[in-house]
Amino acid sequence: MDHSGASGMFLGEYRHTIDAKGRLIIPARFREGLGEKFVLTKGLDGCLFAYPPQEWAEMENKMRSLPLTRADARAFVRFFFAGACECEVDKQGRILIPGNLREYAGIERDVVVIGVSARVEIWSAERWEAYNSQAAGQVEEIAEKIVL
């Protein structure tokens, strides 16, 4: 089963460790969909979001359409863009996660990389476990509220 690719769909969960220099192996199944260069930024829930170039362009367009007269919209746009950087995948399939983004996401050693439809999320393993145990009880309740 293909976990990424032309459809831009990312699926699955992969566990990796980050090295002392802050380099992380991007799972092979995600590399093709993300491309050689992609954008990494502060995500929600204390993780990092990785976007392929075309998805990032769509996010930029959405951000541009937000009403800049609203303080909350301005704050979110600043948060999203100020934390962003372009990552380049090296020959070993690794990216360098800048220190400010590692600090934001609490990433020190054990990392979980997950596919979430059009983006990839990078979590510290500890935060991912905590998030999962907290969210597990709410998923059914949320599913009942969302009309599919």
Automatic annotation (TrEMBL):
CDD domains: MraZ_C (cd16321), MraZ_N (cd16320). Keywords: Cytoplasm, DNA-binding, Repeat, Transcription, Transcription regulation. One of its GO terms (molecular function) is transcription cis-regulatory region binding. One of its GO terms (biological process) is negative regulation of DNA-templated transcription initiation. It holds the Pfam family MraZ. Forms oligomers. PANTHER family: TRANSCRIPTIONAL REGULATOR MRAZ. This is Transcriptional regulator MraZ.
